[in-house]
Amino acid sequence: MKLIVGTLILSIAVGYLAGGRLSNLANLQIRWAPLALIGFVMQLINPPGHWPLAMLFGSFVLLSIFAFVNRHVLGFWLILVGIGLNFAVIGLNSGMPVSSQALAASGQEDTIGRLTDNSDSYVKHHLATGDDTALFLGDVIALPPPIGQAISVGDIFTYTGVVVVIVGGMRRRTKTQHAAAPEVQGV
Fold it and tell me: pTM score, two decimals?
C-alpha cells in the first residue's frame, strides 16, 4: 500500500513540476474504469480454499482488458506489459513466488514464516523454491524500509506506466488552455 500511495504522490509532484495541472486528469479518456476497480478488489478478497487463486487469475484478465482498451493513453502500454509479466509468472507457478532474500532485505522477515506454512490464506503468494519457473519475474526485488516491500519486474513496468499516465495526463493541455496561452513571436 505504501508503494501505491508513494507512486501516486510522486506522480502528482512530478506532474506539477513539469507544469501540469491535476484538473487535466479529468480530460483523460479512460475507458472501462470499473474493470480496473473490480480487478483490484478481486485481488484483495481472500475467501477460503483455492478461490483466492481463481480470483487472482480473474483479476488479471480484467486488468489486462482494461489496460488493452486504454492503450491509446500514454503509459498504458507499460501497464499492460507489467500486468502481462506478473500474470505470466503467477500462471506458471500457481501464485506469485516471493524470494526470501527480498523479504529479508525489505524488512519483511515475519512474512517468511507465514509463507512457509502453506496456509490457504497465502495461496496468491508463496515462498520461492527451486521448483518455481521464471523466478526472475517473481517478487525478487527488495525495496527497503520505509517502503518495505518485495516487488517484481512486472510491478516496475506497471508503476512506471502509472507515473507516465498521471504525469502525461497532468501535462496534457485542454482546448481552453491552448486558447489562453499567449503566442510567442520570433525575435
Answer: 0.88
Task: Give 152-183 pLDDT, tens digit per residue.
Answer: 999 999 999 999 999 999 998 755 555 555 55
By DSSP bridging, strand 149-151 and strand 125-127 are unpaired
Residue 149 pairs in a beta bridge with 143
Q: If you ran DSSP here, which 8-state letter would residue 22 be given?
A: G
- Helix ranges restricted to H, the chain: 2-17, 33-44, 51-69, 76-93, 100-105, 109-116, 153-171, 175-180
Please give the grid coordinates belonging to residue 105: 532485505
Strand partners, 126: 97
* Domain ranges for the chain: 32-158
Task: Give the helix/strand (H/E) hosting 126.
Answer: strand 125-127
Q: For strands 125-127 and 141-143, give the pairing.
A: unpaired
| Residue of 159, 180, 21, 165 lying closest to 82 (CA atoms) | 159
CB atoms near residue 62 (< 10 Å): 20
Rg (CA), the chain: 19
Which residues, in sequence order, are CB contacts of 134 under 8 Å at separation 6+? 88, 89, 92, 93
The C-alpha cell of 153 is what? 519486474
* pLDDT tens readout for residues 68-112: 999 999 999 999 999 999 999 999 999 999 999 999 999 999 888
Find the distance separating the first CA and the last CA of the chain, reported in whole Å.
51
